[in-house]
Specification:
By secondary structure, the protein is α/β, with parallel strands linked by helices. It is 64% helix and 7% strand. The protein folds into three domains: 14-255, Tetratricopeptide repeat domain (Serine Threonine Protein Phosphatase 5, Tetratricopeptide repeat), CATH 1.25.40.10; 365-429, Tetratricopeptide repeat domain (Serine Threonine Protein Phosphatase 5, Tetratricopeptide repeat), CATH 1.25.40; 454-631, 3-Layer(aba) Sandwich (Rossmann fold), CATH 3.40.50.150. It has helices at residues 2-22, 28-40, 44-57, 62-74, 78-91, 96-108, 112-125, 130-142, 146-159, 164-176, 180-193, 198-210, 214-227, 232-244, 248-261, 266-279, 282-295, 300-312, 316-329, 334-347, 350-363, 368-378, 385-397, 402-415, 418-426, 436-448, 459-468, 485-492, 539-549, 564-574, 599-610; strands at residues 454-455, 475-479, 498-502, 532-536, 554-559, 583-586, 613-620, 625-631. Helix 30 (564-574) links the parallel strand 5 and strand 6. Bound molecules: S-adenosylmethionine. S-adenosylmethionine (SAM) binds next to helix 28 and helix 30.
């Protein structure tokens, strides 16, 4: 049986070769008839070969060019299709169908502007053709010409009120335009014409969600579920709805169903990644984004989301690379450059940070976060004007931002411009839930800022200054390592061993509304340079054996464990090693609502208990840090 079909196939191939050869001697209509037979049998390449022979000898044959265009399009040869249909339009300039076909081929070839012109020409010749109107509207939407698209779809819907695609496309364009009432009405019209089309119910659900009608959106999804329970767009829409409701578990479940239904859809994997990140599963989110990008390396939003997740995961250098890849497909995306700038600030790569933040501002001069962040990099307590200008620009874009207003007031006060500072402080709401703690923190810093003390704009600068100020020959320690962001920077500034202490189980107590276990890496240890040694476990368990093995005083330590009890444990257990000259960076020292109950309190108690004298080397309100050095 198999042998026979192989023989049969060979015979067919021979016939086809013969036919292709003969087509040169056959009449044009005979050759096209043979090509049609091959086409009907699904043998498109052979049909196309015959057509190509025909148009070689008879380039002005309209039918042959049209047929060749159709065949080329179906074979995925978009350039060939464009060429054939274009020739057809030249042969018969007044034939609407060839302009319509050419437009379709141009659209397929990702040349939407030219496609739009060809659809327009087709419409001049056949003004009532609703297919042409629908395709023209689709191209206009693709080009971001939403108002025109709405007009075109409205025309299609007026000419053929029963045409579902006209109402559905109109709804989508109205949704793009933010006109959700109109979009909902158009979806409802489409549903009245075809109640069983699940995708229209899903579209309606999306519009209702954007209009904050969440219950109605869920009801629309339920109707769609009754029609197509395994639809990936339905599960995706449900995921988005649950995410909007803050129900991250349900959102993840729905997005997982969506990717099960459409495993090759990169966007669905990305959406699942976004839901996983919102749920706090950063590692899973990263894997999802990477999978989405393996399916579609040009998915800019997935690069951007991956950058955000990597930043949160402490992998800042990788995050920067991800934002750079996002910028290749999203060159005008201000938040992408802003987040890149933030990661570069945390990495201590100031110049690159300024460049990224300026790109964010170029992309959107009204992007307030970029102006705010650039102030921190431009901040110089000897020349505050650039930081002040950046904060003013941020306020221009977002006038009611109290934090920015407060930072402006601080800079003005530090500059000595008291009138401006008073006017700025007056604009900050200082009620119990507002900026009392900021004002209290700033007053404290100003009162304790000695003549040589500095104020810094960024965390890495504060750290670099603190490390450079060390005088004691001794141990370099960090308490609270988490993803290793700060310890990696500390380690590159010294050739000494750096000892990092962390349980990697997160906070042992709730703090600032953060639950027990917040900042956990779930036991995962970060990658660290060779001169770093990690001591894993609760501080009270790891410090005593460490002290037994390592003699000598403390040269430098970074305390970044946030809470009172952990800070107290460190200072009590190490008090004998804290000597005149020891430098301590406290990473959450002030500016938090409960700052007087946290690291600050533990340090002040230790100062009283052990009779320490100290001075402040610097403060950094942006990173909430304070640096002290013990005095003789
Ligand atoms: C804010 S994170 C540290 C961030 C880190 N410096 C960085 O640059 O990414 C605080 C860390 O302190 C750790 N921690 C807090 N109290 C602790 C304790 N008593 N024993 C061990 N680790 C503790 C938590 O596990 C958490 O990783």
């Amino acid at each position: 049986m198999a042998e026979l079909s192989r023989r049969e196939r060979r015979r067919q191939e021979k016939r086809a070769r013969q036919a292709a050869k003969n087509s040169r001697s056959l009449s044009t209509s005979e050759a096209l008839a043979i090509a049609s037979q091959f086409y009907r049998k699904g043998e498109l390449s052979r049909a196309a070969d015959i057509c190509k022979n025909v148009v070689k000898t008879a380039p002005g044959n309209f039918d042959a060019q049209q047929f060749l265009g159709v065949l080329s399009a179906e074979l995925g040869d978009t350039d060939g299709a464009v060429e054939a249909f274009r020739t057809a339009t030249e042969v018969k300039p007044d034939d609407a169908s060839s302009h319509f076909n050419l437009a379709n081929a141009l659209d397929e070839a990702d040349r939407p502007s030219e496609a739009g012109l060809s659809y327009r020409r087709a419409l001049e010749l056949a003004p009532n053709d609703t297919d042409t109107l629908i395709n023209l509207g689709t191209v206009q939407r693709k080009l971001g010409r939403i108002e025109e698209a709405i007009e075109t779809f409205l025309l299609a819907a007026t000419q053929n009120p029963g045409l579902v695609t006209a109402h559905r496309n109109l709804a989508m364009a109205q949704e793009d335009n933010g006109d959700f009432d109109a979009a909902i009405a158009s979806y409802e019209k489409a549903i009245s014409l075809t109640p069983k089309a699940a995708e229209v119910h899903i579209g309606l659900a999306a519009a209702l969600r954007k209009h904050n009608r969440i219950d109605d959106a869920l009801a629309a999804c339920e109707r769609a579920r009754g029609l197509a329970p395994d639809s990936a767009p339905l599960q995706n829409q449900l995921g988005t709805l649950f995410a909007t409701l803050g129900n991250h578990d349900k959102a993840v479940t729905a997005f997982k169903r969506a990717v099960d239904c459409a495993p090759d859809d990169a966007t669905m994997h990305m959406d699942l990644g976004i839901a996983l990140r919102a749920k706090g599963d950063i590692a899973d989110a990263i894997r999802r984004y990477e999978h989405a990008l393996s399916l579609d390396p040009a998915l800019g939003l997935a690069h951007y989301s991956l950058g955000n997740a990597l930043s949160e995961y402490g992998k800042l250098a990788e995050a920067v690379e991800s934002y750079k890849r996002a910028a290749q497909t999203l060159p005008d995306d201000a938040p992408n450059y802003n987040n890149m700038g933030n990661a570069l600030i945390d990495l201590g790569r100031k110049e690159e940070a300024v460049e990224a933040l300026r790109m964010s501002i170029d992309a959107d001069p009204q992007h307030a976060p970029a102006h705010f962040n650039i102030h921190s990099v431009l901040f110089d307590d000897d020349d505050l004007d650039p930081a002040i200008a950046a904060l003013k620009a941020s306020l221009d874009a977002d006038p009611n931002n109290s934090k920015t207003q407060f930072f402006l007031a601080m800079c003005e006060e530090l500059k000595g411009d008291d009138d401006a500072a008073i006017a700025s402080f007056d604009k900050v709401p200082l009620d119990a839930n507002g900026y009392n703690h900021w004002l209290d923190s700033w007053d404290y810093a100003l009162r304790n800022l000695g003549p040589k003390a500095k104020v810094f704009g960024t965390g890495p600068e504060t750290h670099a200054h603190a490390q450079a100020a060390t005088t004691v020959d001794g141990l370099t320690l960090e308490f609270g390592v988490r993803f290793g962001t700060s310890i990696r920077q500390i380690a590159v500034r010294t050739e000494d061993a750096v000892h990092g202490f962390d349980g990697f189980e997160g906070l042992p107590e709730a703090w600032h509304g953060n639950p027990v276990g917040e900042y956990s890496t779930h036991g995962e240890l970060p990658e660290v340079p060779e001169n770093v040694e990690l001591h894993v476990g609760w501080f009270e368990e790891t410090i005593p054996p460490f002290m037994a093995l390592h003699a000598g005083p403390i040269r430098f330590m970074n305390i970044d464990c946030d809470i009172y009890s952990s800070t107290k444990t460190i200072l009590d257990l190490l008090n004998e090693r804290i000597v005149p000259g020891t430098v301590i960076v406290f990473d959450e020292y002030f500016c938090n609502p409960s700052w007087r109950q946290d690291e600050f309190k533990a340090f002040q108690e230790a100062v009283a208990q052990y009779g320490w004298r100290y001075e402040y080397l610097s403060f950094c309100p942006f990173a909430r840090q304070a640096v002290v050095q013990l005095l003789a």
